[in-house]
Amino acid sequence: MQIRQTNKRFHFKKYTNFDRDIDPKQRAWIEVNGEAIEKNVRQLRSKLSKNCQFMAVVKADGYGHDSKVVSEYAIKGGASQLGVATLKEGIKLRSSGVNKPILVLGNLFTKKDLIIAFKNDLMPTISSLRECLICNNIGKQVGLKFSLHLKVDTGMSRLGFESDKFIQEFEKIKSFENISIEGIYSHLSSADEDYPLDPKSSTQLQRVKFNELLKQINVDSDHNIKIHLANSAGMLLNKDFHFHMVRVGLSMYGYSPLAKIDKNLLLKPALFLKVKVAFIRIIDQGVSVSYGGKFVSRRKTKLAVLSIGYADGVPRNLSGKINVIHNNKLYPQVGSITMDQMMVDITDSDEIKVGSTMVLLGSEGDKTISPIDWARESNTIPWEILCSFKNRLPRVQVD
Ligand SMILES: Cc1ncc(COP(=O)(O)O)c(C=O)c1O
Hints:
With 399 residues, this protein is α/β, with parallel strands linked by helices. The chain folds into two domains: 34-253, TIM Barrel (Alpha-Beta Barrel); 271-398, Lyase, Ornithine Decarboxylase, Chain A, domain 1 (Beta Barrel), CATH 2.40.37.10. The chain is 28% helix and 27% strand. The strands form four sheets. Strands 3, 13, 16, 17, 18, 19, 20, 21 and 22 form a nine-stranded mixed sheet that branches. Strands 4, 5, 6, 7, 8, 9, 10, 11 and 12 form a nine-stranded parallel sheet that branches. The two termini are 33 Å apart. It binds pyridoxal-5'-phosphate. Pyridoxal-5'-phosphate binds at residues 57, 105, 187, 231-233, 247-250, 257.
């Protein structure tokens, strides 16, 4: 490309929209391994009985992996339904050609949004009689049945019908002619913390409560209604949590929510976070690095400046607590993580150059750094680490 000079100024405007010229691996990026998702789903499904379905939870853009890629491979692995949080997430999948049932796990409460859900063949989660009535009216207007799932609260105190009113309300809902109840579900609040499972744990109490409600409304007789309760942890804890379908997120992406799991379950992380070395500098002993001077070199130090920071979703409170992998060796991150960059001590390496690729999350050789490690160091949970990665990081599919 040549830039022509006229009137002593460049015609930059003409050339500014060449996003596609930028190599997605030019700075920092996320590699998504679709086959890992497919294999994880296959493996997890092998733990379910033949009739138990697998809903792949692909909300929050597939936990930061790219929901289209995740859905495609989860379906290849045997997922028969998908779970999203918002209308927009559901529509994105529909417009990319996904034709499996999609459940919106978040709450849609306006007629307008419920109509959009209906038109895009997205099943809403219904937590009140009011929303159920709106759906029935929408169905009536077009002479069709609006497919939906009812949610009942058994201890999460988030969405869902109140459990002690549900039986009464279900009686009314049953008489609505223009809805089709595709599922009844609840959500576990602490399954990842209740291991090993104690009969008095809140997870068991939720299951017992859910079972009692189901018995009282006598849904066993209706085989079209799918009953579901388990997230990843619930699914891995015990078969009693499986019912007709499990809704699985974290473990499908390759991470166990439980400290200990079945040794035969070899989940494979699907996400790699990689970054290029943008600059190398050598500093003397006693020189401070980054904002606030929290790190001061104890020796003559070679620093690699990596093009990634908290504006990409790397938590700033991981400053000085993480390592980065290059060629099967770990290098410590030093100084405060800044908005767009972070520094790594590479004094012991002769091979790292400007333009070298380093791995922040994922495996190389026998070294692995997982979002679970980051979560532990930054006092959060791996779900939050995965969902924090911003759109500024291109997602690159690798298989
Ligand atoms: C309602 C619901 N079901 C299932 C899941 C999947 O959970 P996990 O990622 O622990 O498998 C989530 C995730 O937060 C959820 O909100």
